[in-house]
Specification:
Elements (H helix, E strand, L loop, with lengths): L17 H57 L36 E5 L1 H8 L7 E4 L14 E3 L4 E2 L1 H4 L7 E5 L10 H18 L4 E5 L14 H18 L2 E3 L2 H4 L20 H12 L17 E3 L12
Helix pairs in contact: 4-5
Length: about 325
């Protein structure tokens, strides 16, 4: 028996992996290529953006001077505004107002004199025609608010403080205290005077306020007044004026003799009131002791008030 030859089995070859690998490699290379192109493109864009920003900054920096120059040419910067002139300072004195240049009588045309019977003599003797007088016999720091000392053109009468409300003055001259120095305590007197000055300032806010010293009397006078006590009251007034920032006028010094008193010849009648000669001495002193404030308030117009002794005022004071 013939041996059977082994049968050859025909097997199909398995699929080749090479093409697959080639495709994978190709895909990988393609991916790398695309990534590389993208990176190059992004880098170029970044460089362009940075370059654009740099160019923009260069343009901005180079254009700023041009804009400033154009602004300087077209709209020149305004010149700095002039500094406002400082307000005139009101002189301040330590003590009484010192001697100054002589002023004319016109200096008192915008002034008002507030006082007692001594101030009424300004009109009585015609010492100063252009000024205003608000005064009355017996006037003191209380009665000036209530007693009808001031006669008006229509014949009616009003209190001195009401008269101060009728016009604005540039100067206020005050002469009060002669009717209180004998009987009123000094502390009480200064308290009243202080309140009175506050009221004057409120009524005449733009005025220079002059407080005149209480005037001396003769050694033997009809009112039993003492010059030493007057001096004490005047010293207290000087201190008060410094506190209130008003001006103190030591008029008493032009009235005193070598003994510090009013000469007997100046007031032979009662030792307190005097005649035209001493009124002229008084106003000569005022003309040489003034305060000048440049650019001060305008002069006040004349008022319709005049001063005279009140009818039946009932005042017990003598001055």
């Amino acid at each position: 028996m013939a041996m059977n030859k082994p049968m050859k089995v025909s097997r199909r070859k398995k699929s080749n992996l090479i093409p697959v690998l080639i495709m994978l490699v190709f895909a990988l290379l393609l991916s790398l290529l695309i990534a590389g192109v993208w990176q190059i493109s992004a880098g170029a864009q970044g460089e362009n953006a940075s370059s654009d920003a740099s160019r923009q900054r260069l343009r901005s920096s180079s254009s700023e001077p041009e804009e400033k120059e154009e602004s300087s040419d077209d709209e020149p910067e305004p010149a700095s505004a002039p500094k406002p002139e400082p307000e005139p300072e009101i002189p301040v004195f330590e003590g009484a107002v010192p001697a100054s240049d002589w002023v004319s009588s016109n200096y008192f045309n915008d002034a008002v004199f507030v006082g007692d019977s001594i101030s009424t003599g300004i009109e009585l003797y015609g010492v100063m025609d252009g000024t205003t007088v608000l005064a009355g016999t017996g006037a003191n720091l209380s009665s000036i608010y209530t007693e009808p000392y001031v006669k008006q053109e229509d014949g009616s009468r009003i209190a001195i403080m009401d008269g101060l409300k009728q016009a604005q003055f540039r100067k206020v001259y005050i002469l009060l205290g002669g009717n209180e120095v004998r009987d009123v305590e000094k502390s009480r007197f200064i308290e009243r005077y202080s309140s009175f000055l506050d009221d004057v300032r409120e009524l005449q806010p733009d005025a220079l306020i002059y407080v005149q010293s209480i005037l001396p009397v003769t050694r033997n006078n009809n009112y039993n007044m003492d010059n030493n006590r007057i001096d004490e009251f005047n010293q207290a007034l000087l201190t008060l004026c410094g506190e209130k920032q008003v001006y103190y006028l030591n008029v008493a010094e032009c009235m005193k003799d070598e003994n510090g008193m009013l000469p007997d010849a100046a007031s032979p009648a009662d030792g307190m009131h005097f005649g035209p000669e001493y009124y002229n001495k008084w106003f000569d002193y005022l003309k040489q002791h003034t305060v000048s404030v440049p650019g001060g308030p305008a002069a006040a117009s004349t008022t319709n008030v005049s001063a005279s002794e009140p009818e039946n005022s009932g005042a017990e004071s003598q001055n």
